[in-house]
Specification:
By secondary structure, the protein is of the alpha/beta class. It is built from 13 helices and 23 strands. The protein has 3 domains: 3-40; 70-275, Rossmann fold (3-Layer(aba) Sandwich); 280-468, Ribosomal Protein S5, domain 2 (2-Layer Sandwich), CATH 3.30.230. Helix 9 (368-380) crosses helix 12. It starts with a strand and ends with a helix.
Length: 475
């Protein structure tokens, strides 16, 4: 017989605890554990032979490629892998006010203009509010059906009859609830169960489902981690409130590549696509200044040039400050340690500030060389050579390691008017430079980089290890 019980669930990671506590032992979050009602049933043994047999096929069996439908927004199609796939579920997360609802509203109107039936169901705003925002952005369309609802039972009863829409947008999944669960909307149980029912509807009726997800203060999608496993595609909409640029990044895609990005600009008329993001990110550069270096990176299949800026200032504190925006702070600490140990260039008594211009975040190790060059330029107050780009990974022994997709990086730099490039020596030996007019300069170690850029000024001190050995000998 079913027995009503309760358990304690972490609203951040979904871990179940036998009793309440202030801190979740699984994810380390504080004040995220809440009590939820559940129904326990005694499991019964399975009787073999009573189930339905499933059909098995070989791995070599013919399979058709998933048919895709373009959204009319090129940057979104790029991130999705070419367009929408019928029966798929897409989860979009991002900070409040970053533009998730605006992007989906523009998307649903662009799709509806192709004659595709679309439904937009909002759990946070009324129909009048959505209509007013659409009117302000010039997105009114009679082919888009709107509704304000939070009951999953009512939504499925409405859409699972007659001719359902081909595209369904739920904004947001944290506001949806099932009335057969004794839990508040947004809790782990409700998010998991509501997502399951909506995804099951999408698979059954062959419609494309978009789910909007809230994010935590750490930037992760709120709710159980299993939610990201249930959907086919996970997109993150990123950007700084002080910048007009927005980055749509794919971190999971069963129908395309991951780590693709789409670049948008937030304007008074909504989001506008940026077809050449490199030119836009470099548009605000000021002449030749110290501490600035252009990095030729890759975001998915797209080469992207961004400016890395560094500032080195004297410090009178025992622990000088290290501030990083748009890059990994642990990697900056590693680069500083390599420069001090392998090159004898001292940063331990100076404050270091590093920023990636434009509000974009870089996750590539290939940015190490550009970061090191920007730091040295800021330290010596000497600008880097004009119109040059850099890329390469730095190892702990100070060597510059090879990176992938070098030709694409160099071609993008040449297209934007750059005339020289500092690249790893190992990569240079394996690449054919036919057709490129860039002046290629090989770099083998960080010491080699410092000598090429700043000459004798960078080699005024022996490496730290050598100085230590000399002191031991003298003593």
């Amino acid at each position: 017989m079913a027995k009503s019980t309760s358990h304690f669930v972490c609203q951040s990671c979904g871990a179940v605890h036998p009793k309440w506590s202030g801190k979740c032992d699984d994810c380390g979050s504080w004040n995220t554990i809440s009590e939820e009602a559940s129904i326990e049933t005694t499991p019964k043994g399975l009787t073999y032979g009573k189930g339905k047999k499933i059909d098995l096929v070989t791995l070599a069996a013919d399979a058709e490629d998933a048919a895709r439908t373009g959204t009319g927004i090129g940057e979104l199609d790029r991130v999705l892998g070419g367009g929408l796939v019928a029966g798929s579920a897409v989860l979009i997360g991002g900070d409040p006010g970053i533009g998730k609802s605006t992007l989906l509203l523009q998307t649903v109107v662009a799709i509806a203009q192709k004659g595709i039936s679309c439904s937009y169901i909002s759990g946070e705003e009324s129909v009048a509010q959505v209509t007013l925002r659409a009117k302000r952005l010039g997105l009114l369309s009679p082919n888009v059906q709107l509704a304000a609802a939070t009951s999953v039972r009512d939504i499925i009863a409405t859409l699972d009859s007659g001719n359902p829409p081909q595209v369904l947008i739920i904004d947001s999944i944290q506001t949806m609830y099932l009335d057969n669960l004794d839990a508040a909307p947004g809790t782990v149980s409700q998010v998991r169960a509501a997502s399951h029912e909506l995804i099951k509807l999408a698979k059954k009726r062959g419609l494309t489902l978009f789910l909007v997800g809230h994010v935590t203060k750490d930037g992760q999608i709120a709710g159980p981690r299993v939610l990201e496993h249930m959907v086919d595609t996970v997109l993150y909409f990123e950007g700084e409130r002080g910048h007009e640029f927005r980055i749509l990044r794919a971190v999971k895609n069963r129908f395309g590549g991951t780590d693709e990005i789409g670049v948008f600009e937030m304007t008074g008329d909504g989001l506008k696509e940026i077809t050449n993001p490199s030119a836009l990110f470099l548009s605000g550069r000021e002449g030749v200044v110290s501490g600035a270096c252009v990095f030729a990176g890759m975001e998915g299949s797209r080469p992207l040039l961004v400016e890395i800026q560094a500032l080195v200032a004297p410090s009178y504190m025992s622990a000088p400050r290290r501030a990083v925006v748009g890059w990994d702070s642990n990697r900056l600490a590693m680069i500083l340690a390599v420069l001090e140990t392998r090159c004898g260039i001292r940063f331990s008594d100076k404050e270091v500030y590093l920023s990636v211009a434009g509000g974009i975040r870089i996750n590539e190790p290939a940015a190490d060389l550009a970061v090191a060059a920007a730091l040295l330029s800021a330290l010596y107050d000497m600008p880097l050579p004009a119109a040059c780009v850099m890329f390469g990974e730095i190892g702990l022994s100070g060597e510059i390691r090879a990176v992938s997709r070098m030709e694409a990086r160099l071609k993008e730099a040449e297209k934007l008017g750059f005339t020289s490039a500092y690249i790893p020596l190992a990569t240079s030996k394996k690449t054919n430079f036919k057709g490129l007019t860039l002046a290629i300069k090989d770099v083998e170690t960080v010491s080699d980089l410092a000598r090429q850029l700043f000459g004798a000024k960078a080699s005024r001190q022996p490496p730290v290890a050598s100085r230590q050995k000399t002191l031991e000998t003298e003593s």
